[in-house]
Amino acid sequence: MINTLKKLFGFGPSVNYAELVKNGAIVLDVRSKSEYAGGHIKGSVNISVDTLRNNLVKLKDKHKPIITCCASGMRSASAKSILASNGYTQVYNGGGWYSLQNKL
Questions:
Q1: Phi/psi-derived region of residue 44, left when phi > 0, alpha when psi is between -120 and 50, beta in every other case
Q2: Which residues constitute the domain of residue 85?
Q3: Which of 24, 37, 44, 81 is in the most buried spot, having the most CB atoms within 10 Å?
Q4: pLDDT tens, 17-74?
Q5: Can you spell out the DSSP letters for 65-87?
Q6: According to the model, what pLDDT value does residue 14 have?
């Protein structure tokens, strides 16, 4: 149970986010459009967590790495769970977008 929670919230073995992006990972910002407009990671894709289930078609390749991010890490954890339950195989919770940006 603890390991499942750690995995869901992005804790555990460290992830080299810069390497993932260098190799073609998608950075998926799941904040609202207005939050995204206030600042975001260059090149990221914005699909709010509330509309993610209805917009999975925009994320065609289920085997391409996806790094989720939001303001604090809570919505990105939810988005990671949604993606994983829909067959996406390489999903990482990047947490807060500003913090993630500094890791890229």
A1: beta
A2: 25-102
A3: 44
A4: 999 999 999 999 999 999 999 999 999 999 999 999 999 999 999 999 999 999 999 9
A5: -EEEEESSSHHHHHHHHHHHHTT
A6: 82
Structure tokens given for 29? 């910002």
Residue 7 has pLDDT above 90, yes or no: no
| Cα–Cα distance measured from residue 27 to residue 41, given in angstroms and rounded to the nearest whole number | 8
Residue 92 resides in a domain: yes
Q: Domain containing 90 — which CATH number?
A: 3.40.250.10
User: Does some domain include residue 7?
Assistant: no
Domain assignment of residue 9, yes or no: no
Residue 29 lies in a domain: yes
Helices (H), the chain: 2-8, 17-22, 33-37, 74-85, 97-103
| Total number of domains in the chain | 1
Look up the pTM and report it.
Answer: 0.86
Cβ atoms 72, 84 nearer than 8 A:
no
